[in-house]
């Protein structure tokens, strides 16, 4: 198989014509040994062929079968075959594979004793089987169990598996997994003997039984020995190439043997003391060898020995380091003896990385876990989710194909990455067959097929619904793209942005959007640099325009805590300027009905009393609502008011794609209704639970738990990351809830980014947030202190002291109200 | 720009009084006129200050911009947009706004308003 792969890749990659001669010992061209047992399910030898003889002819390859090489003359650079053919080489590639290792047990030569390696072996077994009643296999490894299955397929229903080690598949799975597998196999009719050492094979000319070291005897009339492999290194040994102490032709990463004109690949090659007895690393070696021959870059870097197979209907898989224990790993085990399922994953002690694992009975997650492991994809905060799936009503966990990077190798047999597959899909390969044709993904062991399908579907879906989200006729970019451009070019005013990246003269869509981006990036005074006229009316006049053309004023009251003195000031201001007052939903006081020209004076008084802008007019942080907390409440666990104030003061003035609200509750009674906020914090015995992406509004949505039991510092760090990530990636005028609903991968993805730092953006997001926090100034203070800004707060440019005479009020419950629309 | 007998050029303000690419409201007798300095286009526009949609005196506080080549203003209340050239509503409503001619002389801005409006 590996030799064939080499031919295939060499022909495909070589730019000039090559004289390529293939010698094979067997009577047929290369065939699929991985699926050898399918021979007994009726697959013919022809069907198992990797390519017909004509393929070789078409590619200009001379194929010589049934004629093994007997001798290599390194000096003359020639080989001589069994039939006396002599061929000269520039390069010789040994892909001689391995033979079954037959332990020196007395009696192995008796009739009815087989090995399980080639189609010829199978044919021999096939002709013997009808006479056999009791079968046995020596070797409870991967191949041994395959052979046991073959025995059952051949009609030898009473079949025993003899394993020397204390468990089945000792190299791949652990005791618990092995015991479950054993139970499963026994229920299917196999008899398993472990810790059993065969001493002698009994019988006259043919086998009649086996005697073990513990002196027990098993009557048997057919035996398959599958006790491991030994590399076919005889030729290499004979011509003086370096071989390993326990066999195998020593190669370097270029697949060169000790003679650089001779390469070795596959199971005959010994790389860093290891024989790779699987097809995928063999293919990888073939690719490395081709690369060496053609002067390309690819080398062999060792290979992961993860495997997945179906043994007599039972899924068995192991990946990464399946056995790691102790201080190096935390292990999560899921076992369901009822259904015959055993799963184990080994997680790095910090819970971030998947180190390896074992799956028995249900290996559907194998590819995903293997990729998670290989690509070091950061695990969700509850790593058991990767085994059990996200529970509790949330949709598809973060471990879907979407979480894999483009470099993730999906098909290890053919070394095809996720990015390769998606780009083929984008080029029009829309089905699994198309993909198989154009990049061969899924044509090897087939284990990756479900994942290839997922990638095809996902790519198609993404393609189908991907409408380029441009801002308006003036900017051919999405908000996120434009934000990146503005940052990159360090632009500070709307006009500059329009000149550099836009066309036309702007509009009411792109102006506030760009103004908001500028504010989110630099947090400079929003009225400066000519940006005032790019602001929506509310931001332009730092107040909320109301019916009739007057404005409302909302001073910040962090956490809803206010002193009597400040309350009095608000009352006095309201009285002096005849304002309607109302307590808002965000625990502060709104003063309505202020004339534009009164705003600076109103604010002067408020600022003098220690108030700041409440940004009720901006797409910015509004309030952080709090319950009274542990300072007064007999149920309170922590001081929710202090924490709310701290947080509100941290994020005040920060502009975002939409308004942001927060809440802090001092206990689970949740009086602050924090779970209806963009970020909601609820005290627990051990710290704070952080919920995000909730909102009220027309489509209420509860915030989802992002992380639990956080200390205050971590909680703020996560909010920093969360808010900054939202600010940087959300579409314009999108609240966090809607943003999350659109976010591919949903909450699990967000949690990965924020908590597990899967994008490695954590520090950057925190730094950006900190710089916004550091740049904060009260914009009302800046406005009233600057005569040029202050001048803008008048209704008539040519009569600044006059108020708009069309403004009229009615009276209601001893206060004024705006006159109804005409 | 041709002066006619009926036109009266009324001084509104100085150029510096009007924010670049924005508007102000000018009081002319009992009239409220929205005056815009469209700096990007090097143009000045004037319209009625009242948005015909909800009769709010607010157009001068609106954002200006363009739709295709047409200069426009968006009312801050409900974002109805009107052509600054023709006064036509660009948001598909039947209403339109009055427009006035503007002249800039030596840093001073003048509006042309007919006698019968005053």
Automatic annotation (TrEMBL), chain B:
Keywords: 2Fe-2S, Heme, Iron, Iron-sulfur, Metal-binding, Nitrate assimilation, Oxidoreductase. The keyword Cell cycle does not apply. It holds the Pfam family Rieske_2. Signal peptide: none annotated. The keyword Transmembrane helix does not apply. Residues 10-111 form the Rieske domain. PROSITE patterns: NIRD (PS51300), RIESKE (PS51296). This is Nitrite reductase small subunit NirD. It comes from Aquirufa echingensis. The gene is nirD.
């Amino acid at each position: 198989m590996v030799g064939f792969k080499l031919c295939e890749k060499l022909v495909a990659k070589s730019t000039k014509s090559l004289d390529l001669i293939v010698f094979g010992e067997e009577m047929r061209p290369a065939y699929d040994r991985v699926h050898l047992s399918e021979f007994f399910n009726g697959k013919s030898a022809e069907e198992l062929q990797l390519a017909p003889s004509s393929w070789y002819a078409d590619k200009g390859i001379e194929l010589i079968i049934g004629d093994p090489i007997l001798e290599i003359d390194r000096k003359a650079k020639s080989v001589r075959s069994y039939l006396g053919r002599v061929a000269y080489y520039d390069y010789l590639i040994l892909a001689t594979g391995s033979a079954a290792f037959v332990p020196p047990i007395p009696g192995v030569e008796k009739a009815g004793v087989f090995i399980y390696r080639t189609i010829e072996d199978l044919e021999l077994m096939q002709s013997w089987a009808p006479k056999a009643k009791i079968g046995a296999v020596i070797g409870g490894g991967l191949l041994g169990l395959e052979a046991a299955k073959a025995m059952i397929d051949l009609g030898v229903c009473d079949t025993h598996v003899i394993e020397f080690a204390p468990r089945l598949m000792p190299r791949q799975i652990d005791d618990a997994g092995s015991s479950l597998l054993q139970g499963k196999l026994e229920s299917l009719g196999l008899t398993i003997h472990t810790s059993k050492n065969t001493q002698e094979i009994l019988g006259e000319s043919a086998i009649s039984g086996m005697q073990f070291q513990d002196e027990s005897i098993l009557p048997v009339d057919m035996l398959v020995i599958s006790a491991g492999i030994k590399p076919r290194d005889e030729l290499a040994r004979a011509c003086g190439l370096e071989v390993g102490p326990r066999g195998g032709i020593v190669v370097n990463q270029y697949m060169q043997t000790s003679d650089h004109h001779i390469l070795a690949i596959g199971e005959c090659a010994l790389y860093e003391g290891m024989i790779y007895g699987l097809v995928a690393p063999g293919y990888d070696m073939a690719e490395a060898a081709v690369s060496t021959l053609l002067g390309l870059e690819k080398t062999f870097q060792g290979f992961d020995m993860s495997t997945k197979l179906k043994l007599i209907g039972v899924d068995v898989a192991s990946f990464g380091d399946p056995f790691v224990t102790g201080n190096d790993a935390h292990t999560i085990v899921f076992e369901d003896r009822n259904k015959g399922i055993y799963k184990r994953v080994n997680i790095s002690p910090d819970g971030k990385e998947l180190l390896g694992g074992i799956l028995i009975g249900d290996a559907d997650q194998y590819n995903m876990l293997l990729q998670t492991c290989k690509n070091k994809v950061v695990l969700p905060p509850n790593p058991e989710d990767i085994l059990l799936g996200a529970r509790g009503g949330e949709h598809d966990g973060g471990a879907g194909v979407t979480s894999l990077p483009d470099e993730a190798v999906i098909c290890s047999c053919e070394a095809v990455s996720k990015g390769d597959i998606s780009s083929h899909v984008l080029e029009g390969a829309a089905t699994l067959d198309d993909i198989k044709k154009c990049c061969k993904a899924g044509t090897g062991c087939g284990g990756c097929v479900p994942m290839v399908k997922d990638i095809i579907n996902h790519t198609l879906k993404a393609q189908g619904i991907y409408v380029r989200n441009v801002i308006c006729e003036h900017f051919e970019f999405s908000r996120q793209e434009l934000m990146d451009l503005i940052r990159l070019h360090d632009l500070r005013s709307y006009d500059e942005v329009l000149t550099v990246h836009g066309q036309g003269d702007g509009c009411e869509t792109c102006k506030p959007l760009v103004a908001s981006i500028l504010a989110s990036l630099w947090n400079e005074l929003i009225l400066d640099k000519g940006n005032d006229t790019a602001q929506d009316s509310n931001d332009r006049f730092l107040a909320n325009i109301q019916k009739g053309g007057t404005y409302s004023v909302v001073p910040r009251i962090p956490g809803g805590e206010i002193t009597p003195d400040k309350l009095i000031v608000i009352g006095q201001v309201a009285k002096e300027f005849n304002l309607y007052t109302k307590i808002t939903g965000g625990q502060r006081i709104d003063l309505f009905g202020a004339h534009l020209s009164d705003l600076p004076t109103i604010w002067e008084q408020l600022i003098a009393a220690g108030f700041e802008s409440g940004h009720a007019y901006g797409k910015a942080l509004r309030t952080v609502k709090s319950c009274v907390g542990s300072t007064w409440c007999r149920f309170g666990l922590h001081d929710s008011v202090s924490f709310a104030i701290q947080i509100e003061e941290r994020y005040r003035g920060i502009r975002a794609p939409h308004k942001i609200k927060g809440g802090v509750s001092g206990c689970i009674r949740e009086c602050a209704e924090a779970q209806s906020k963009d970020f909601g914090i609820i005290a627990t015995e051990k710290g704070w639970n952080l919920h995000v992406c909730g909102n009220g509004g027309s489509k209420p949505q509860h915030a989802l738990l992002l992380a639990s039991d956080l200390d205050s510092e971590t909680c703020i760090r996560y909010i920093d990351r969360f808010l900054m990530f939202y600010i940087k990636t959300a579409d314009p005028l999108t609240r966090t809830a809607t943003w999350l609903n659109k976010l591919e991968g949903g909450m699990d993805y967000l949690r990965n980014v924020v908590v597990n730092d899967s994008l490695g953006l954590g520090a950057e997001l925190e730094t950006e947030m900190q710089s916004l926090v550091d740049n904060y100034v009260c914009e009302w203070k800046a406005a009233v202190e600057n005569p040029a800004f202050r001048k803008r707060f008048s209704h008539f440019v040519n009569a600044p002291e006059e108020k708009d005479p069309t403004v009229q009020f009615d009276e209601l419950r001893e206060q004024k109200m705006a006159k109804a629309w005409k | 720009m041709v002066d006619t007998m009926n036109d009266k050029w009324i001084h509104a303000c100085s150029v510096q009084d009007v924010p670049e690419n924005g508007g102000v409201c000018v009081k002319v007798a009992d009239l409220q006129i929205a005056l815009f300095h469209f700096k990007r286009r090097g143009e000045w526009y004037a319209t009625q200050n009242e948005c015909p949609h909800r009769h709010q005196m607010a157009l001068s506080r609106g954002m200006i911009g363009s739709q295709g080549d047409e200069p426009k203003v968006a009312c801050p209340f409900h974002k109805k947009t009107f052509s600054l050239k023709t006064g036509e509503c660009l948001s598909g409503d039947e209403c339109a706004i009055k427009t006035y001619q503007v002249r800039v002389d030596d840093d001073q801005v003048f509006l042309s308003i007919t006698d019968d409006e005053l």
